[in-house]
Amino acid sequence: MSLTNASPSEAAMAARSASHVLATLPASARNDALTAMHAGLVAARDDILAANARDLELARAAAADGRLSQSLVSRLDLGKKGKWDEMLRGILDVRGLDDPVGRVTLRTRLDDGLNLERVTCPIGVLLIIFEARPEVIANIAALAVKSGNAAILKGGKESTESFVAISRAISAALERTRVPNAAIQLVTTRDAIPQLLAQERHIDLVIPRGSNELVRYIKGNTRIPVLGHADGLCSIYLDETADPEKAADVVVDAKTSYPAACNSLETLLVQESALSTVFPRLAAALASKGVELRCDAKSKAAALSAVGDVAGAKVVDAAEADYDTEFLALVLAVKTVADADEAVAHINEHGSHHTDAILTESSELAERFMSAVDSSGVYWNASTRFADGMRYGFGTEVGISTNKIHSRGPVGLEGLMIYKYKLRGAGHVTAVYGEGEGQRRFKHESLPLEQ
Amino acid sequence: MSLTNASPSEAAMAARSASHVLATLPASARNDALTAMHAGLVAARDDILAANARDLELARAAAADGRLSQSLVSRLDLGKKGKWDEMLRGILDVRGLDDPVGRVTLRTRLDDGLNLERVTCPIGVLLIIFEARPEVIANIAALAVKSGNAAILKGGKESTESFVAISRAISAALERTRVPNAAIQLVTTRDAIPQLLAQERHIDLVIPRGSNELVRYIKGNTRIPVLGHADGLCSIYLDETADPEKAADVVVDAKTSYPAACNSLETLLVQESALSTVFPRLAAALASKGVELRCDAKSKAAALSAVGDVAGAKVVDAAEADYDTEFLALVLAVKTVADADEAVAHINEHGSHHTDAILTESSELAERFMSAVDSSGVYWNASTRFADGMRYGFGTEVGISTNKIHSRGPVGLEGLMIYKYKLRGAGHVTAVYGEGEGQRRFKHESLPLEQ
């Protein structure tokens, strides 16, 4: 890793060149680099935590003045229980994943002696823009090296000292490996983001890690593809056949287990015929967890009679805007619908194509819902909060994508890969192939992927 | 298909709604629609060819005045030998392809009764912008229906009458199928392109089919992802160990079999030590096919002494710009390099990441070249002109992509697909999982894809 004061365009060009070297390194060389990074960070522990303490001191002062949020200060703290060890273990976890580079995903004999292969390869150069959390830098550097991608890292100014200390340690460690120095660069230039976002010739993919506002700003200000999501407006549809106990468990988990998460529930759609049967149990369970219910007229009446015994229950009128709002707090919009079709139409129109669920005991209805809802995750009788790379078993995650191309949903190492076609011939030319007399025909024989 | 005078934003919204219906249709309903389209076009043959004749008449007049190129007139002609039958056969070919929708590509048991599936699904709404060739409309409509994507089609004004006649026939045919009318829309509004390119909320992917200028304009004027390529600057590196006969065959095919194609050769990089051994045979073969060689000083000397016997041979000095030029004509830039490393660096810097080849008898060097060159196609001893969906055995092609994400190289039906994650539970919640005592662990058992 180099700590660069180069201009953003110089950094991008250097990353592009380094990516061409990195792409040709064998898995062993990339894994050796991860081993070295891990050892380098272990050795530099005291320096890094001291740097982090300086960042924290400034941030606490800013928080005391109200210039910074308390949650940001908390995300900044590398000394928090388990955080440092988790960061280090993450590097070894990534090292232990299967090599994503060079997998053959298609093999076809076009003709005798002319064989086509589709082989996975790195995308090229990634730009990672993130906010406060300093451990992300080690995590992302590990993912980039493992996947053979060069990466330019640009972090938030609150963690500058931590970033610089971590970079120094990683940079020194990589010096003794075959990974080129410019493959991982930390850009510390002020106001570099707009210039980096203009480097479409040298940067292939932008991955923002931070607030919705950051992601929205980036999506609106670059022609480079952006992997991620600005909004996480997840909905659940409650069908009349739903099991009340399961349904209550799921909505409480989806709404309250981590309200600030992108995969938390924001809108509950209730079938009209379920208002007086299944819904009351959900309304009471949510209210007793302190969730404010913003309801349309019909669901408000049903909710009010259900929460009578709950002290401090909040049931209020919903405004139209509530059905387009990601609350990220203990607030839930509730809307009455006639049936699953109306729910699907509402979700496709108002949702953010992130993760949506149906609660029903009808498998036929569930399958229809899962086909028709146009979201990266469509769930049956399960909490929307399962939308997560670790929970899906991907080992690691670079983010959750609501894009419609390339990668969708939780994105692991696979999302950092593309492929190339390798064609091996013996002087083959195209002009001899055709449908006419005396012309050669292609064989197009599918060959086994393993050889 | 509907022939729409709706505004571009209305057309896009209608396509989005139709896409949600189309995505849930079974393969049989989509294939039935293709059968109906085929029959409808067969029945409307005379009307369509009459409309095409009117387009042709105007185009010929414009060509006579020099307002239109002769090659465009030729591309316009649906009556040309074999073209009509090929268009119709294309629809049945697409119908015969395996269903790309609903393939399970990952299946994991997260826990007892909690199963995750990754299932292929359509991207959503495609915008296809194309120039003169009227048969593209039938081809693209067939691909869209097969892949479950809605499509908005916008054609060049020279073929308006043909497009309208084809649309009418397809539209009438689709009326009797389960494919919604707005799933395939032909927009005939004048100057609709800029407005369509602004519909990023409702359009997921733009596919331009036409000149480099069209593609470049589109890439520069939308935030919607664009699948395609503006440039096709393909190179071949001639190594000193190359077999002279094979090498000459390959470069002649790559340069002369269809010079206007994007996969044709534009730059030949010659190892210095091959200038007096292998290169002379290539230079003579190219010159005798009428290819003008634009050379640096060293290769010029070698070429001049090689083409002495070729009447009218053209060997001239190259300008720097020639190494960045897609000639699309019988012109070839030739440059001397020290070795494969210099060739790779030149290709990665000056090429368009489309298709590049090495001519060598060393398999070790070939593998190194194919790993290091950052292009969608990397070939060993084969002509760059093999870069084509039909030749790769994909059955059909929507274009060749030089993008670094989603789809790269020749793109078939697979490139029109994305996936969604389906999670089926029994009231599962996330809060009970964790590393602590008494918490549940995920199983993450990989299950067979076929069930």
From TrEMBL, chains A, B:
Its EC number is 1.2.1.41. The keyword Transferase does not apply. GO terms for molecular function: glutamate-5-semialdehyde dehydrogenase activity; NADP binding. Pfam families: Aldedh. Keywords: Amino-acid biosynthesis, NADP, Oxidoreductase, Proline biosynthesis. It catalyses: L-glutamate 5-semialdehyde + phosphate + NADP(+) = L-glutamyl 5-phosphate + NADPH + H(+). GO terms for biological process: amino acid biosynthetic process. Pathway: Amino-acid biosynthesis; L-proline biosynthesis; L-glutamate 5-semialdehyde from L-glutamate: step 2/2. The keyword Phosphoprotein does not apply. Residues 9-290 form the Aldehyde dehydrogenase domain. InterPro entries: Ald_DH/histidinol_DH, Ald_DH_C, Ald_DH_N, Aldehyde_DH_dom, G-glutamylP_reductase_CS, Glu-5-SA_DH, GPR_dom. Catalyzes the NADPH dependent reduction of L-gamma-glutamyl 5-phosphate into L-glutamate 5-semialdehyde and phosphate. The product spontaneously undergoes cyclization to form 1-pyrroline-5-carboxylate. Belongs to the gamma-glutamyl phosphate reductase family. PANTHER family: DELTA-1-PYRROLINE-5-CARBOXYLATE SYNTHASE (PTHR11063:SF8), GLUTAMATE SEMIALDEHYDE DEHYDROGENASE (PTHR11063). This is glutamate-5-semialdehyde dehydrogenase.
